[in-house]
Design goal:
The chain has a seven-stranded mixed sheet with strand order 11-3-2-1-5-8-12. The chain has a five-stranded mixed sheet with strand order 4-10-9-6-7. The longest helix is centred in the first third of the chain and has 34 residues. It is an alpha+beta fold. The chain has two domains: about 100 residues, no CATH class; about 170 residues, Sandwich (Immunoglobulin-like).
């Protein structure tokens, strides 16, 4: 008897150690659990709270499952209580139905509040002017346009730290999903639509960005570098691109639209109204999160 108790305690200890290792050491490797921006932090907290609430049911069920298998295993001289006519317990019914119902209600309230708080088109509170970046998903590359700076890049995104970034997202290719895991959640890039997403990097660093939808042969190559810099470094980079990079012409853009992979490229200029032209390329457009004034800029007639 003493030996069996010692074995059970040992198993519980090993399980505890494995749980701690899984939730701490792996957190640095799983980038969604290592946020670098206010949106990603709130999303991480939502995942952790959800996991803990679900664990209230899942962990006891797993432990009881293992215990029942061990306790009522077939063996000689088994002394487990045998009750073939037992069929109901009000107390147990209240426990295994009541606790999950309470947890589901708590998850519902938390999720609804988080959904409204993390609405992608909702501007971030800041005393700094947001930076606008227009994102276009191409086969199989990403085009980033900086309308205020007048420059564009392929597969490279640079942003200043602690500055809200307003992404306007569309696609001139099959639908994709724009994703920078350490800064925030995904936003779909779709032809004929201009989606709005607000993110921010809280510190200088290099981050990974990617397309999160399968879009064909070279889908695995559709990732991009994200670098958060100081404001001074960002301004210097903009100046370097303006003085040392070629212009992106309309013919050059048509070549980029063709299905192909690409290395990092920078452009000192791009055609005026290129993003609006892309959004309205296939006819009427739809805009998510844009104000009426901003949406007014995106019209098929004007883009032509």
């Amino acid at each position: 008897m003493k030996r069996s108790k010692a074995l059970r305690y040992m198993m519980l200890f090993v399980m505890s150690i494995m749980t701690v290792l899984a939730t701490t050491g792996c957190a640095e490797k799983i980038i969604v659990l290592n946020p670098k921006g206010p949106i990603a932090e709130q999303q991480r907290d939502l995942m952790v709270i959800t996991l803990l609430l679900c664990s209230i049911v899942i962990v006891p069920v797993l432990i009881l499952t293992a215990f029942i298998i061990w306790r009522y295993r077939d063996k000689k001289g088994r002394k487990a209580r045998y009750t073939p006519n037992w069929e109901h317990s009000t107390k147990l019914e209240l426990i295994w139905w009541g606790i999950p119902i309470v947890i589901i209600l708590a998850l519902a309230v938390i999720t609804v509040k988080a959904t409204y708080a993390l609405e992608p088109s909702k501007p971030l509170a800041s005393d700094k002017k947001p930076l606008t970046v227009q994102v276009t998903s191409l086969n199989w590359k990403w085009l980033f346009q900086y309308p205020e700076q007048g420059i564009a890049t392929i597969n490279e995104l640079k942003i200043p730290e602690d500055v809200p970034v307003r992404f306007e997202i569309t696609a001139d290719s099959p639908m994709n999903s724009f994703w920078i895991p350490q800064l925030g959640g995904q936003m779909y890039a779709m032809s004929g639509m201009a989606m709005n997403l607000h993110l921010q990097a809280d510190e200088v660093g290099h981050y990974w960005g990617s397309g999160a939808n399968f879009t064909g042969t070279e889908f695995a190559q559709m990732y991009f570098d994200v670098e958060a810099t100081t404001q001074e470094q960002f301004d210097q980079w903009v100046d370097d691109v303006k003085t040392g990079s070629p212009k992106l012409t309309l013919d050059g853009y048509k070549q980029l639209v063709e299905p192909s992979t690409s290395e990092v490229q920078t452009f000192s200029e791009f055609p005026e109204g290129l993003f609006e032209m892309t959004v309205t390329k296939y006819g009427a457009s739809h805009n998510h999160g844009l104000s009426s004034k901003e949406a007014q800029k995106i019209k098929p007639d004007e883009a032509k």
